[in-house]
Amino acid sequence: MSGLDASFYLLEDENTPLHVAMVVVFEGPAPSYGDVVRTIAAKLPLVPRYRQRVRGVPLHLGRPVWVDDPHFNILYHVRHTALPAPGTDEQLRNLSGRVLAQRLDPAKPLWEIWLVEGLTEGRWAMIAKVHHCMVDGIAGMDLATVLFDLSPEFEQPGEGEPWAPESEPSDLALLADAARRTVTRPLRQLTDVARSAGAVREAHRLREFASGLTRATARFASPSAGCLNGPIGPHRRWCWQRVPLDEVKAVRKALGGTVNDVVLAAVSAGYRDLLNARGRLEDDTVVRTAVPVSHRGADERGELNNRVAAVFVNLPVGVDDPLERLRRVREQTDDVKRSNQAAGTQALTRLTDTAVAPALLSLAARIPVRLRQDIVQTVTTNVPGPDFPLYVMGRRVVEMHPYVPLTGGIRVATAIVSYCGTLHFGITGDFDAMPDLDVLSKGVQGGLDELVRAADGARPLAPRGR
C-alpha cells in the first residue's frame, strides 16, 4: 500500500468504518440472487483486488500488503435482502444507513454488494461497499464501468476458469520485501516529488504558490462552526438529495464559476439552515470543509488505489445573500487553482509517503481519531460520473446515491456524484449527533433554488480583486 492507502486502512476502528459506498437503483424486474452472484463472479478477473485481503507486516516494519485470500467465498460478499411493502425511498435509505454503518471484516476482502428487492414501481437496488484503502472516488467510478454494462444487451455468463490463489507469503518474506522497499521507495518517490516541485517552480508559479499557502493558512484563522465537531458513535444516518444538473449549469452560465462552485454554495445554504435551526448561526460563521481533489492521470484510470489531495474552503454560512455566498466560494476556489495548492498538498503527501516509517504511520494514523479537532467541520467531495446510462443484467441504472465515511471528529459529510443529467447528493451523519440531518439535506435543495432564482437575468459575478 501507499502511505495514503495505509492511512485509510489504519485509521479505521469500531466507530469509524472507512468504506465508501454507492446505493444504485435500477428499473425492474429484479434478477435472481443466483444470477447476480454469477454475473459478479464473471467480472472478478477484471478486478483481482476483490479476491485479496490485507496482511500486516510484523511489528509494523512495513506497510500493509495485499495477498490473495485462499478462503475467498463470493457468497459472503454478495448478499440478499428485501424491503417490506410498500418499499419506499425512505425505507431504502433507512436500510442503507444500517448496512453502511457496519464495518467490513478486515480479515476478508474489503467489499460487499447487497441485492435489495421490493422497491416501489418494481424497482430494485444494489448497496455496494468498498474500503477507502482500495479506491478513491474516481477509481470507484472506473470500477463501475467495469462491473456495469454499457448496453441493455445481456447474456448470462458461463462458468469461468477456476481461480487459483497465489501462496500467502511468510512473515520472513514480508519482512524481506519491506526491507527492500525501504531502500528503493524513497529514491523513486523523491524523484517524483522533485518533478512535482519543479513544475510548481516554473515561471512565476513559486511566488503564487507561496502566497496561496499564506492565504490558505489565513483561512484557518477564521472562526468556524466547531459546534459541529465531536466524538463519533458506531451508527449512521444517511439521506440523499437529487438536483438537475441542467439547473446547476444554468446558474454557472449566468453567474460564472464552475459547477463545483455552485455545489459548494448550495451546500453552504444547507449548513446555514442547519445552524440557524440549532440557534448557532452568526453573521461571521463559516463551516470549513475539506474538498478532495483527484490527481489521477489518464494513464492511471482503472487502478484501484487513492490518488487524491485535499484543499480547504470556508463555506460562508453566515451570509444571507445567495449571490454573495457564491462569490465568496468562488474567490476561494479560484485562489486554490491560481496558487496550485492542490499540487502542493500532493507533493507534501508524496514526501510524507517517502519519509514516514511504517511504525510511525501506524501510530500517527490513529491519533486524529482519538483526539477532538475543531478545525475542519466536514468533507464535500464531488465526483463526475458517467453522462451515459449504465446497465446490470439488462436493467438500466436510474439513480446513483453516494456515501462518504466519517472520521477525525467530523460528524457530517457530503458526497456528490453526477449521473445522466442529475447530481446525486449523499449526506452522511453520526446517528446521535445529527438527528436533524434532513434539515441540511433540504437546505441544499433550497440553496440551489435560491441561486436559480437569483441567476434569472443576473450578470456574472466577478470575484473581488479581479
UniProtKB/TrEMBL annotation:
Sequence similarity: Belongs to the long-chain O-acyltransferase family.
Keyword presence, Phosphoprotein: no
The protein, known as: Diacylglycerol O-acyltransferase
Q: Which residues form the O-acyltransferase WSD1 C-terminal domain?
A: 306-451
Superkingdom, taxonomy of origin: Bacteria
Sorted UniProt keywords: Acyltransferase, Glycerol metabolism, Lipid biosynthesis, Lipid metabolism, Transferase
The pathway is: Lipid metabolism; Glycerolipid metabolism; triacylglycerol biosynthesis
The organism's taxonomy opens as: Bacteria, Bacillati, Actinomycetota, Actinomycetes, Streptosporangiales
Q: What is its EC number?
A: 2.3.1.20
What general EC class does the enzyme of this chain belong to? transferase
Describe the reaction catalysed, as an equation: an acyl-CoA + a 1,2-diacyl-sn-glycerol = a triacyl-sn-glycerol + CoA
The record, for InterPro entries, names:
Acyl_transf_WS/DGAT, CAT-like_dom_sf, O-acyltransferase_WSD1-like, O-acyltransferase_WSD1_C, O-acyltransferase_WSD1_N
